[in-house]
Structures
1.
Amino acid sequence: GAVVSQHPSRVICKSGTSVKIECRSLDFQATTMFWYRQFPKQSLMLMATSNEGSKATYEQGVEKDKFLINHASLTLSTLTVTSAHPEDSSFYICSVLGHNEQFFGPGTRLTVL
Amino acid sequence: AQRVTQPEKLLSVFKGAPVELKCNYSYSGSPELFWYVQYSRQRLQLLLRHISRESIKGFTADLNKGETSFHLKKPFAQEEDSAMYYCALSGNNAGNMLTFGGGTRLMVKP
């Protein structure tokens, strides 16, 4: 299966700043990646589908101007949380679609003070 | 709309006891169902999918379209099975997008 990494693994930032999270497919060229958010003791909620070379498709209720997704290459998708606020604090997980299966990254814990 | 429900947040059993983690779904078409597992401090990984009809680590799951269920079963639980288990659904027109259930934490006591 695909090996997926995320960077950073955890980040703490001040309210109002922007944070970029990287998702890399290390051994697989990923046309499609997914971004999820997981609040404490809750399930994964799909935020958006990231397609290489085109605009991301956002789920209902997810602000595209707040959560900027860039999938400029087959191995890298980035999620930028703009003007982060404490309510954006969460665990962000990406996955890579390969062979009709999703392979997940280890996640990034974002804490906004 | 598609929905996945896992009614139990926590399931605690003794080693060697049978385990059944419940999953019910709601979807109007023909879904594909999955079970994902997340061991402590590890990433989410696929355990099994209904189309494979295989047993992984002793776990099996049968899709029951009449009851819209996809319960995960193991006849004899092991301590190393302790983990978080998520049932997930992919619709036939959803572009491989997954809808996850709330998850069930399985604790296998010695």
2.
Amino acid sequence: DAGVIQSPRHEVTEMGQEVTLRCKPISGHNSLFWYRQTMMRGLELLIYFNNNVPIDDSGMPEDRFSAKMPNASFSTLKIQPSEPRDSAVYFCASSFGGRMAKNIQYFGAGTRLSVL
Amino acid sequence: GQSLEQPSEVTAVEGAIVQINCTYQTSGFYGLSWYQQHDGGAPTFLSYNALDGLEETGRFSSFLSRSDSYGYLLLQELQMKDSASYFCAVRDAAGGKLIFGQGTELSVKP
């Protein structure tokens, strides 16, 4: 398996623009997670899905952020409008199985977002 | 809620043994996990403890004491490539998501 695939790897945009990050989880995994990582705040969970259904979006910063998972093999994280403080590395991760297996998450390579 | 504490940085020399501690507070416990992240890379799973005791995986071992809400990651025969950040993580009370510590940056010196 190719692992969790994220695109783009790097994104540079101007403040006010819409940004869409994409993620393809590992086939057969039923949970998908979006994280944001910065030096100041560390690794923060934004939202996670279980069987394509959003379960917990309490980490989504504000209404400018939205996430969808239309099917088991694809998810998007959208920021509209983007702001400089959104600059960070965004990771997607997936996991499968029951209670024990959920401790093991497989991360994508991340998208490094810079908002100018 | 859940919270984890781990040292921000640790320095050791090549060939040595280093221990990275993690204390946690959580309502409900579903195990303690460890992840490694090299600079510019993605976190990768290292180890997981659900029960008390030591789990060994090659040069890495992880220990858990549930009564003390404490665990550690032990790295033996340190190599330069072990220089990375190490995160401990617990699952939340509902058991669905991982809560990560702030990470420990390990620097291995020659």
3.
Amino acid sequence: AQSVTQLDSQVPVFEEAPVELRCNYSSSVSVYLFWYVQYPNQGLQLLLKYLSGSTLVKGINGFEAEFNKSQTSFHLRKPSVHISDTAEYFCAVTGNNDMRFGAGTRLTVKP
Amino acid sequence: DAGITQSPRHKVTETGTPVTLRCHQTENHRYMYWYRQDPGHGLRLIHYSYGVKDTDKGEVSDGYSVSRSKTEDFLLTLESATSSQTSVYFCAISDSLYNEQFFGPGTRLTVL
């Protein structure tokens, strides 16, 4: 079975600072990778995805992520965060009829 | 926004009672999923469907059953609810098993 590990459960950061949310996965098959964001009392919405091609993926709201196959990682980055980026972020992996989500990272942006 | 609705949005029930949650889509997507979200666990897949009357188990399927008699509707049933099934339940849809999923607003279920 596949698994996803989000290395930080909480990440506090000041407004306009850069941020990296870390995600590692394990799988014996080719995978497809996703980052979702969840604002309070809402469902999840897609930030970005890696299906194939370029390992650097750009998403909405200025976020990007890099797929690193050798390190089995898919870290999410943003060069300058805003208060409105405060939310919970989930990394997910699919492949071989299986789909797994990480436990989530709560990003809190402080003024 | 993808056309996904869940009903009810909130429900409080007692241990041992049956509960059915409904997910309805207007996107005609082939795949539909039920997840539960619990603190520290993220989202865990309960069951998913890949067509009318075609379903498969996910990571945490014990105590849950599903049915899909129409493309647009996917029902999740707790035959005899337990307190451990207190959670927030999300429905999702996708056009491919390996592509992005679109999520509903969630149902908060409390089992007393």
4.
Amino acid sequence: AQSVTQLGSHVSVSEGALVLLRCNYSSSVPPYLFWYVQYPNQGLQLLLKYTTGATLVKGINGFEAEFKKSETSFHLTKPSAHMSDAAEYFCAVSDSSGGSNYKLTFGKGTLLTVNP
Amino acid sequence: EAQVTQNPRYLITVTGKKLTVTCSQNMNHEYMSWYRQDPGLGLRQIYYSMNVEVTDKGDVPEGYKVSRKEKRNFPLILESPSPNQTSLYFCASSLSRTVPNSPLHFGNGTRLTVT
């Protein structure tokens, strides 16, 4: 069964600083990986996804994530944080564990605070 | 506009009083699901539906019921709510869960308080 671990339930950065949100997964088969963002009082929105092919994935709002199979990681980065990036971020993995239906499992989330 | 619509956004009720949270999607998605979000626990799946008339339990189904009589609607029913069901609930839909890279589309959430 797959699982997702997000290191750090709360990350605080200064405006203009690098954002790094960590995600490690365990999966019995090659995974499909997602990052979602949740702004206050809203539902989750898809930020980016990795399926196959290029391991560096670009998403919306300047975010990107790199799939590293050897490290079972899919960390999310943004070179320069903006105040509007303050939100909760969720990593998710989708795999079938050998069946035909794919289950999406979410990490517990990382709250990003951006300080002026 | 493609969207998942949940109602109500906020709900305060008392223990034991049956309630229904509605969810509707206009994207012709086959798959729909309910999650609850609690601090420190992330999102946990309550029930899901692969298609019309097909529903199955998620990770935390106790105390909840669902039905999928039409493709677009997937209501969540709490027959006898208890305080431990106080939470933020999300409905989500996806084209199909047999497609591994099909993302979930979420509603804006329903904040339920049971006193």
